[in-house]
Specification:
Blueprint: E1 2-8, H1 16-26, E2 32-38, H2 44-52, E3 58-61, E4 75-76, H3 78-83, E5 88-92, E6 95-99, H4 102-114, H5 118-123, E7 130-133, H6 139-150, E8 157-160, H7 164-173, E9 178-179, E10 192-195, E11 218-221, H8 230-238, E12 241-243, H9 246-261, H10 269-277
Parallel strand pairs: 1-2, 1-3, 4-6, 7-8, 7-10, 8-9, 10-11, 11-12
Antiparallel strand pairs: 3-5, 5-6
Helix pairs in contact: 4-6, 4-9
């Protein structure tokens, strides 16, 4: 039996097993199973060893281990190198390789929102500014995608984080971003405000900052479970458009599944239904 895992802490919110097990059944991978596992930082080295020794066939990595897993890996793909963030592990020729499928998953979601292809949006001269809340493990993937979307236009990515340390580390990776003090807003209109923090996983979670902005701004939350965080609910009640992390989650999962199995699974109505009904 081939065993796949998603590891994180917390992990109860993850719907990855439902999605991957659905695809495994659909594509007749009867010898495969996908589970979730709550781990601590001290467990990461053993997880990688288990992949190396074929005890685990593949792993998804979620909060808060996307950076912490890196020292135990043999190699990383190009996007993981640039972002210093890993969310997928796979063994290739006795090497455990870390991949970043978050960046492409988010890029696919946002290009669909704009109704453009990747190439079209990269070449588009329209100036777009973006505002990111948070500077954790997944934020570098979002910045990577947004820099591609901005392309050669004069758009700017603004980032605000509670702690200066994480924000400064992000700026070292991406010197073109503009840091802004937590609780303040960029002095320009932003196309999208993106919550990359884990605030919202719990029912009563609130960012407690003033985000009353232009009604044309889209509020995007990477969290997909619950479907509507307070960040999105408050924006909706103010009259803004909102979008949760459902499609990014599915797009990145599709790339991870393909990395492990060579099969590019369809994001069909049944998959959407699994998330909507959970």
């Amino acid at each position: 039996m081939k065993k796949y895992l998603v590891i994180g802490n917390p992990i109860d919110h993850s719907l990855s097993p439902q999605i991957h097990n659905y695809w495994m059944k659909k594509y007749k991978l009867a010898d495969s199973i996908y589970e979730k596992k709550k781990v601590e930082a001290k467990d990461l080295e053993q997880i990688v060893e288990d992949i190396r020794n074929d005890k685990i066939a593949g792993v998804n990595v979620t909060v808060p281990f996307k950076k912490l897993i890196i020292p135990y890996l043999d190699e990383m793909d190009k996007v993981a190198e640039v972002t210093q963030s890993v969310n997928t592990l796979h063994k290739v020729k006795n090497k455990v390789i870390g991949y970043n499928t978050d960046s492409l998953g988010f890029l696919k979601t946002i290009t669909n929102y704009y109704g453009l292809t990747n190439t079209q949006i990269n070449m588009n001269p329209t100036k777009r500014d973006f505002f990111i809340l948070g500077a954790g493990g997944v934020t570098s993937s979002i910045v990577d995608s947004l820099q591609y979307i901005i392309g050669k236009s004069q758009g700017m990515i603004w980032v605000s984080n509670r702690t200066k340390k994480n924000a400064d580390q992000l700026k070292k990776l991406f010197p073109k971003i503009e840091l802004i003090e937590w609780g303040k807003k960029p002095p320009v209109f932003c196309d999208i405000i993106i919550n990359t923090t884990s605030v919202g996983l719990k029912k009563n979670d609130n960012l407690n900052i003033d985000l009353n902005v232009d009604k044309r701004t889209l509020f995007y939350d990477l969290i997909y479970n619950p479907k509507e965080t307070n960040f999105l609910k408050d924006a909706r009640l103010r009259g803004n458009k909102t979008m949760n992390g459902q499609m990014m989650f599915l797009n990145q999962a599709k790339i991870a599944f393909n990395t492990w199995t060579g099969i590019s699974p369809e994001i069909d109505e049944e998959v959407i239904k699994i998330l909507d009904n959970d």
